[in-house]
Amino acid sequence: MKIAATGSLVKIHYRISLEDGSKVEQEKTGRPLSFKIGSGKVFAKLEEGVIGMQANEKRRIPVAAQDAYGKYKKELVLRLDRKVFPEDIKLIPGRTVQYQNRDGERVNFIVNDVTDKTVTVDGNHPLAGLDLVYEVLLLEIK
Prior knowledge:
Layout: E1 9-18, E2 23-26, E3 33-36, H1 44-50, E4 58-63, E5 77-81, E6 96-100, E7 106-114, E8 118-122, E9 132-141
Antiparallel strand pairs: 1-2, 1-3, 1-9, 4-9, 5-8, 6-7, 7-8
């Protein structure tokens, strides 16, 4: 029977939860996630966790915050003047807004708070600072 190794192309179904078991994410399309082990398309700890698995095998793979979306950085929470946003944009807490820097790179921020004069945004990934657990079902190995 074939075993997943570095260089293998694999397809998985996955579910992401926190250590306490609360569900965070599941593949959005219902289609399996495909990646080549060692390509860097997914977190290295997830790739490492799939190595050694066989088709139809399930595995729980913990991924620490620093190996996933990194530590939560307070310096990425910014209070901005409301005037820097277009007047027609609806700024609602929880909404994602995008900023394009001078290099043309787009950065996502989540709106945390809105007043008449300021908007507080957070540039951290929503899962930054959280230890994750991937529940993986390996569907296929090529």
